[in-house]
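Milestone M4 deliverable, item 7.
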Amino acid sequence: MNLIFNIFYNYLVLPLLYAALRFAGLFNKKIRTGILGRKRVYEELILNATSINKNKKLIWFHSSSLGEFEQAKPIIEKLKQEKNVNVLITFFSPSGYENSKKYPFADLISYIPFDTKSNAEKFLSITNPTLAVIMRYDVWPNMITSLKNKKIPIYLVDATLRSNSPRKYPLLKSFHKILFGSLSKILTVSESDANEFKSFGFDDKKVSAVGDTRFDRVYQRSLLAKSKHLIKSDILQNKKIFVAGSTWEQDEEVIFPAFLKLVSVDDNVLMIVAPHEPTLLHLEKIENEFAGKVKTIRFSHLNNYSNERIIIVDSIGILLTLYTYANVAYVGGSFKQNIHNVLEAAVYGTPVLFGPKIENSQEAMKLAEIGGGIVINNKRQAYKNLRRLFSDEELRAKAGNISATYVQSNIGATQKILEAIYKLI
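Output delivered:
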């Protein structure tokens, strides 16, 4: 790092950040778990490293959290199939670490230590990676500097950069130009992202657009999901299925009234709603919303199904499979703050509805642009589009085909990333 930025980062930013985390940890269990989980990070790494073959090269993959790790999985799994290497996986967030401790394709799994110079040096002396692969954006300056000093190549993968990103503000841009300049390769999800990184003064040798591994990952998972049978076929027979996934209360305030109106004019529609947080309180709130209007049943009680029009999902981890049943899907988060993963529905050739807050998702914006996705802003628009899609089979098939083609045409980033990695290992 530049001397001025080095002083600013290490003697102002880091102490403030660490103090803020310690304070927040008093009130937030997730943050507290992350702090406590790092207390024995070096001891556990040393202990666990004794069981791996030190003669193999070690490839380090770092993800901030669970979502970014999902993007790393296609790369890791194909790498392990094709090359005889060790794989180290690290996380910043407890959600990634705690949910991935038994991931079978990893040889070592750890938290990344807090980003001090001494921590970075100690971590690298223990692990000694051949190559560091950072997913998306979690670039820590001291760790990057230590990697560069040790001449360990660093790839930033599935990278994105918006034109209005704070990283491009005048002072921050100078800092990030130095930081990104220390990376060996920046592999972006699109040409527009590549151009934004090139605005820092980088050339085609450093920055290239290879695509987004989320397409590969969701396609792989969809093939497995199609073989599962979570709902008996007689329940779904002759039904028009609307799956509303990862919904928050703000989403439900729009789509529930629209579905109630749809039920009154179409005897064959069935809604499967999978709330993002299926807490007991939230499940009861949904049931109360429809009490006396439409019969509901919880997913865990489906053995007692008796022609209920709404199935309320009271478990997690099955949404991708539930989308296989959808004739039309709604993806939540888009009336709250940030939309969830639209690819999980689109991969099946399903028209996808969502609210207006989609700026965080290039995929949602693209689907809306090409006609595989539809933005709804209120209850009236939600009902209008549901009615059109469920009454016009040709329209529904056309929008669904656009969704499927969009996903299929973007598969292949994993192979391009691996080709870049293989040049170094």
